[in-house]
Specification:
single chain, about 375 residues, mainly beta, Jelly Rolls, six-stranded antiparallel β-sheet, 1 helix, about 40% strand, elongated
């Protein structure tokens, strides 16, 4: 469905091509199968919008089950001629954090039985690698298994999804060896997952490939999505310092509802104000701490004196989703260099925190820990 936000992230257009190719080996439960999510967008607490293409065992057959999943509140049909009534029959995933209708709904597309010529059977599911490719050209989606085309159809009505990211649905039971995705509006993506890498938002990286946690009746399964349809926003601010005056101290007070990586003149901030080590062991991660964001947003203070230059300065923030950003990208609330007086006792306490590798932290407005 089309985004109604100005300045939206790059996305697949209606006439675009978006093939996704996955090399995998089935797990111990072929009835759970492997579920690919295509043109997926975050809604509510999950990636509630997307095409769901699942290969799994049903009886004695291996089947491809194709559905479209919508957030329950999204009843608008993207037929190419009408527009959504925002906040009534369609919700913007980048801004609507508390839609009025909970849950998702599933629209059937089709179910087909895999022919024997694909070589993907109950007996080979977990004993050899298989290649699954789903290619979407506009509204036409073509699926091949091990080089054999098994289905090609045009989405209509409520089945339609026009853009979004790629990933795997929670509950998949397989090991993913290799993934290639192109045509998403972002740079082409390819990764060999047998290196232990995991660029997805969930899943478990191993030297055999990307795996997924076993089903747990008490914990909902999470989708493992590539953050390519909603890339991390970058914010930059340039300013000029007086050349004739020396800056004795500069402090950065940083707050972000979610997750942020911050640099000053291209150098990352550090926990003690010195230059970052080659390994990055003194670079803080996962800023800022999680909180009840509707009541409290935490901020951190960093010494950036050594990172400033004599003249024009640049500060850059890269925003991540974090806990706050389940349905929206993180937002930097404030970031500015300041000169600040501190007492000897407080300076000694801060020095102890630095030696112990702790980050100075402020909570609830100006209350200092």
């Amino acid at each position: 469905m089309r985004s109604g936000s100005a300045g939206a992230s790059p996305r697949t257009t209606t006439g675009g091509t978006s093939p996704a190719t996955v090399v995998f080996r089935g797990g111990t439960d072929p009835t759970a199968g492997l579920s690919l999510l295509l043109r997926a967008e975050p809604m509510g607490k999950t990636w509630g919008e997307g095409l769901n293409w699942t290969v799994r065992q049903s009886g004695d057959d291996m089947q491809l089950v194709m559905t479209t999943r919508h957030y329950a509140g999204n009843t608008w049909i993207d037929d190419g001629t009408s527009e959504p009534d925002w906040g009534v029959n369609h919700y913007d995933p980048q801004s609507e954090t508390n839609p009025t209708t909970a849950g998702t709904r599933t629209v059937p597309v089709a179910t087909v039985t895999l022919p024997a010529s694909t070589g993907l059977t109950e007996n080979t599911w977990a004993t050899r690698d298989h290649t699954l490719q789903v290619k979407a050209v506009g509204l036409t989606v073509t699926t091949t298994v091990n080089g054999v085309e098994i289905d090609s159809r045009t989405l209509t009505g409520d089945q339609i999804r026009r853009h979004g990211s790629f990933g795997f649905a929670g509950g998949s039971n397989a090991t993913i060896r290799d993934v290639k995705v192109t045509g998403t509006g972002a740079p082409d993506f390819a990764v060999d997952l047998t290196t232990g890498a995991n660029p997805f938002e969930d899943g478990i990286g191993t030297l055999s490939g990307l795996t997924f946690p076993p089903k747990n009746p008490f914990i909902p399964a999470k989708n493992a999505i590539l953050p390519i349809a909603n890339p991390a926003p970058l914010l930059r601010r340039a300013f000029t310092l007086p050349r004739a005056r020396r800056v004795s101290k500069a402090r950065l007070h940083l707050s972000a509802a979610g997750n942020v990586t911050f640099t000053v003149n291209g150098a990352p901030i550090t926990v003690h104000g010195k230059q970052a080590t080659r390994e990055g062991t003194n670079v803080p991660r996962l800023l800022t701490d999680q909180s009840a964001y509707d009541r409290t947003v935490l901020y951190d203070t960093f010494d950036v004196t050594a990172l400033l230059r004599d003249g024009r300065e640049n500060v850059v923030a890269e925003l991540g989703r974090g806990w706050y950003g389940v349905t929206a990208s993180g937002v930097v609330l404030a970031a500015c260099p300041l000169q600040r007086r501190t007492s000897p006792a407080r300076e000694a306490r801060r020095d102890l925190h630095r030696r112990l590798g702790h980050q100075p932290r402020h909570r609830q407005g100006l209350a200092h820990r």
